[in-house]
């Protein structure tokens, strides 16, 4: 049952990514954080709970897949770096900041979080 619920949320996030592909990182992150906030109970339980490593692993792999398409290894800032390291670094950072957001009872609004993460991703990818 939990596997199906996790898969449903990951699939919905994937759908949101596809629909948001034409948007900037910040605009796309707003869509994400609004979804996360609307499903706060599920995500806060899954990301913050010590008993949910399966979800965190699935979510991290999903983020890696999504960000892999965004990395431009021809950019000067990425030259000399291993693509896998860049992608995993960015994905781990996004998942980590989402965990922080839930753990601290959403200290910033979804729009503020989206703007912050969007600017960071623009700067790093």
Structure, described:
It comes from Paenibacillus polymyxa. It holds the Pfam family TetR_C_8. This is Transcriptional regulator TetR C-terminal Firmicutes type domain-containing protein. With 125 residues, the protein is mostly helical. The protein has one domain (2-124). Helix content is 74%, strand content 0%. The chain contains 6 helices and no strands. It has helices at residues 2-19, 25-38, 40-48, 53-68, 83-103, 110-124. Helix 1 packs parallel to helix 4 (53-68), helix 3 packs across helix 5 and helix 4 packs across helix 5 (83-103). The longest helix is centred in the C-terminal third of the chain and has 21 residues, at 83-103. The chain is globular and about 45 Å long.
Q: How many alpha or pi helices?
A: 6
- Globular, elongated, flat, extended or rod-shaped: what is the shape? globular
Classification by helices and strands? mainly alpha
Kindly give the count of domains: 1
Please describe the biggest sheet, giving its number of strands, its sense, and whether it closes into a barrel: none
Q: Roughly how many Å apart are the termini? A: 36 Å
Strand percent estimate: under 5%
Number of strands: 0
Q: Look at the structure and give the mean pLDDT.
A: 87
Order of helices and strands: HHHHHH
Based on CA atoms alone, the radius of gyration comes out at: 14 Å
Q: List low-confidence stretches.
A: none
Helix amount, in percent? over 70%
